TrEMBL record:
<protein>
    <recommendedName>
        <fullName>UPF0303 protein ACFFUA_09980</fullName>
    </recommendedName>
</protein>
<dbReference type="InterPro" id="IPR038084">
    <property type="entry name" value="PduO/GlcC-like_sf"/>
</dbReference>
<dbReference type="InterPro" id="IPR010371">
    <property type="entry name" value="YBR137W-like"/>
</dbReference>
<dbReference type="Pfam" id="PF03928">
    <property type="entry name" value="HbpS-like"/>
</dbReference>
<comment type="similarity">
    <text>Belongs to the UPF0303 family.</text>
</comment>
<dbReference type="InterPro" id="IPR005624">
    <property type="entry name" value="PduO/GlcC-like"/>
</dbReference>
Length: 163
């Protein structure tokens, strides 16, 4: 078993991450909504000069993708691996990894899933529609995993406040 060191004052708890998912539920999610959310993430990334790639998938279809200056093809591979975690577990990739860390292990050591296919690193968040459930994922890759996660959460909060 691998023990993972974390900084509790900087790292959200499993409970805090679960609360984010309960709170960030949409009434609907259309192609136009994907464009608006993706464009909002691009705007945020440009303001921060964040070298990220951004991706939004719904029901197996890519609805939005952008790669900002400084991002690399490897970011697309990370996006796919993090998104697969959301699709398999129905919750944020960072939450899945945090649940393993809370048990004193890692996703890679204990999930029995291929790390070339799945990555429980922060940055992919479920798109959840009220009365329906998880229908897709919004993913950011290019920053440290907590920052990727926080950027997506902030964008969803802003997006919901506009609706």
């Amino acid at each position: 078993m691998t023990t993972v060191k974390q900084s509790p004052e900087l790292t959200p708890s499993v409970e805090e991450l679960e609360e984010q998912e309960r709170r960030l539920v949409l009434r609907r999610f259309t192609h136009d909504d994907a464009w608006a959310l993706g464009s909002l993430l691009v705007e945020m990334a440009r303001e921060r000069r964040a070298p990220v790639a951004i991706d939004i998938h719904r029901a197996g279809q890519q609805l939005f993708h952008a790669a900002l200056p400084g991002s690399a093809p490897d970011n697309d591979a990370w996006i796919a691996r993090k998104r697969r975690v959301v699709e398999r577990y129905g919750c944020a990739s960072y939450l899945v990894g945090s649940r393993y860390r809370a048990k004193g292990t890692t996703f890679e050591a204990s999930s029995r899933l291929d790390p070339d296919t799945y990555a429980a690193h922060g940055g992919s968040f479920p798109i959840t529609v009220e009365g329906v459930g998880v229908i897709g994922a919004v993913t950011v890759s290019g920053l440290p995993q907590l920052q990727d996660h926080q950027m997506v959460v902030e964008a969803l909060e802003r997006f919901l406040s506009r609706s």
